[in-house]
Design a protein that fits this description.
By secondary structure, this protein is mostly beta strands. It has strands at about 5, 10, 20-25, 35-40, 45-50, 60, 70-75, 80-85, 90-100, 115, 120.
Length: about 120
């Protein structure tokens, strides 16, 4: 059974850091693109960052450039999202998802597999 397990969310003060993990089981990530999305209350899903596992190419939304970094560990079958200089507007539920289209240029509708989400709250 294909499954993602996300972890690493929590409460952090503005300017702080968190690292989210997305561990895949039941399949290998080699031929997928893995995206991180977030959804704040009353808002739609927003694409945050994406990585193509096959070649390591990455994409980041303008709102997180210079602050968030996506990476992967092929041995652990895990993708990470390092989030630095967090702001209150980063508060959301963060999801990882996979698309077999192996492209970071597709919308959320093209992602077939989704994790359960992890809450990130940035507040003083």
């Amino acid at each position: 059974q294909l499954q993602f397990v996300e972890s690493g969310g929590g409460l952090v003060q503005p300017g702080g850091s968190l690292r989210l993990s997305c561990a895949a089981s039941g399949f290998t990530l080699d031929y997928y693109a893995i995206g991180w999305f977030r959804q704040a209350p009353g808002k739609e899903h927003e694409g945050v960052s994406c990585i193509r596992i096959s070649d390591g190419s990455t994409y980041r939304a303008a709102s997180v450039k210079g602050r968030f970094t996506i990476s992967r560990d092929n041995v652990k079958n895990t993708v990470y999202l390092q989030m630095n200089s967090l702001k209150p507007e980063d508060t959301a539920v963060y999801y990882c998802a996979a698309t077999r289209l192996n492209s970071c240029l597709v919308g959320a509708d093209e992602y077939e597999y989704w994790g359960q989400g992890t809450q990130v709250t940035v507040s003083s």
